[in-house]
Design goal:
A hairpin with a 5-residue loop joins strand 10 and strand 11. The chain contains 9 helices and 13 strands. The radius of gyration is 19 Å and the shape is globular. The chain is of the alpha/beta class and 320 residues long. Helix 5 crosses helix 6.
């Protein structure tokens, strides 16, 4: 049995930082509900697909935007997820720190993209504020975290422990993994323990060109993900972490549905639903007591599947 963690990072972005107050209402609708001439393809649409297959995802929700725009938009997001009985966990994009109406830290003059750019003391404060915001919005207990853009470091794990958050899923060997200062020089694919925190890394694989890639809905074809899932099961791996975002069912301009990615999601949910004897889709809160250190084989994808992805991606970018 392979534990599959279908994770969604929930974020809201304005087109730029100079007019965010003016742009936020439209940005909220676009990133949460995904309105298009063909219908809405945001969070509720993704929740509907998961519900049709009886699947529970992990939604890492970014709450710091509410320090600028108030608690109601955050409560609306949390309400959608709670009504759908999904697992709500904490996400954090530090680009919002200097936009807060009330200063969160003493020095917020400079915008910093990554959590690792802050000191341990500052990270402790940011995590506490973010956790409190999410719980006050009705999320329930928070047990897992993912840093925005995977920009964490060892201090982040220490800060998580001080905030009683026991699980992290920020380690991505293909993106910022080496810069975290954790497991330098290794390719980590299975859960491990560090600084008293259980780390669930993003599932990465070597594609047909031997490049390392993480398993993300917009970055892999369904054929690639399906092959990797069966391979992980065959190799007796314990965990498989898939990434998506709340806006990934839309094209890059957020103006039309991306039917290629939508079909990937539908096929993936069908696969997981029909193979429950092999794949257990679950939230991280169910694995708090698990402490696995052994790193097993790195998944690989064939050249023809990589070529298929390049063709499919080119089609998406041209016609979506």
């Amino acid at each position: 049995m392979l534990d599959v963690h279908f994770t969604t990072d929930v974020e809201i972005w304005c087109d730029n930082w100079s007019r965010i107050d003016e742009q936020f209402p439209e940005a909220f609708q676009r990133y949460v509900y995904g309105p298009t001439p063909q219908g809405n393809f945001g969070i509720p649409y993704a929740l509907k697909i998961l519900a049709e297959h009886g699947l529970k995802g992990v939604f890492f929700v970014e709450p710091l935007f509410s320090t600028r725009f108030g608690k109601k938009p955050l409560e609306e997001i949390v309400g959608l997820l709670k009504e759908a009985n999904q697992d709500i966990q904490l996400h954090l994009h530090t680009e919002w720190v200097d936009e807060s109406i009330k200063p969160i830290l003493k020095d917020t003059k400079q915008k910093k993209q990554y959590l690792r750019n802050f000191t341990l003391a500052e990270q402790k404060i940011l995590l506490k504020v973010s956790k409190d915001l999410l719980q006050q919005a009705g999320s329930g207990p928070i047990s897992a975290f993912r840093a925005g853009s995977f920009g964490f470091n060892r201090d982040t794990l220490k800060a998580l422990k001080s905030n009683c958050i026991k699980i992290d899923s920020s380690y991505n060997q293909s993106t910022n993994g080496a810069k975290s200062g954790i497991c330098t020089g290794e390719i980590i694919t299975d859960p491990f323990e560090c600084e008293g925190i259980t780390e669930y890394p993003m599932t990465v694989f070597k594609d047909g060109s031997a490049r390392l890639r993480h398993t993300q809905l917009t970055a892999c074809t369904f054929a690639e993900i399906e092959g990797l899932l069966w391979q992980a099961l065959e190799h007796r791996k314990k965990s498989f972490v898939i990434l998506t975002h709340n806006f990934e069912l839309l094209n890059r301009n957020r103006s039309r549905p991306d039917y290629v990615v939508i079909n990937r999601l539908k096929k993936l949910c069908k696969l997981l639903d029909q193979n429950r004897d092999s794949f257990k889709v679950c939230g991280f809160e169910e694995k708090l007591e698990e402490k696995r250190m052994e790193q097993k084989n790195i998944p690989t994808s064939s050249r023809w599947r990589t070529a298929g992805r390049m063709i499919e991606q080119a089609y998406r970018w041209r016609f979506s």
